[in-house]
Amino acid sequence: DFLSVFCLKINHGGTFTTLPKIRYKGSKVNWVDDIDSDIFSIVEVTSMMKELGYENPCMAYYYKKPNTDLDNGLTELAVDKDVCEMLMYVDKFKVIELYIDHYVNKKHVFIQEPLVLGTTSEPNEPDIGSGSESEVDERSRQSSRNGSRSENGSGSGSSSDSGSENGSDGSSGSDSEDSDYFMNEENLIDDVVKENEVFDLQEG
């Protein structure tokens, strides 16, 4: 029956360009005539591709709806339902264009959503504390001064981090130097008093 016979124009060996105005570049074209739509199936297409030298089963088939372009009419041919939909055009259009996608591991450019270009913000770093850097520095210096006062005091109250790290006595190297200095100064005063007493005794 002539109404059930059609021709396939197979575009193969090429690659699809991106949207808009999709093209199939670098392709070869082979024609298969007198195809009976009553027995046509995906298996038939696979057999045609093997005859063309393609043994890799990882291929995707697409047909272009008649009187459309690749942007709007490219339709996947994967299951029997797709075959039935394609054969609906055979009564009026005797040539169906078939396109082979040899790169099925990639996302098809004609079915992906358009990219929305815009500025992307960098991920926010975790907020450590509050306030500006100058405020944080000021609080650090204030905390350091408070720690020094607690070390020079009687040892009561809470100790600073530096005090706890250097031991339970709360003393540091700089504090011991200061205490030595005051002790030496007291010794000097005692010596001066003793010399004055000796001098008074001699005069008496």
TrEMBL record:
<dbReference type="Pfam" id="PF26130">
    <property type="entry name" value="PB1-like"/>
</dbReference>
<feature type="domain" description="PB1-like">
    <location>
        <begin position="8"/>
        <end position="102"/>
    </location>
</feature>
<feature type="region of interest" description="Disordered">
    <location>
        <begin position="118"/>
        <end position="204"/>
    </location>
</feature>
<feature type="compositionally biased region" description="Low complexity">
    <location>
        <begin position="143"/>
        <end position="174"/>
    </location>
</feature>
<protein>
    <submittedName>
        <fullName>Transposase, MuDR</fullName>
    </submittedName>
</protein>
<dbReference type="InterPro" id="IPR058594">
    <property type="entry name" value="PB1-like_dom_pln"/>
</dbReference>
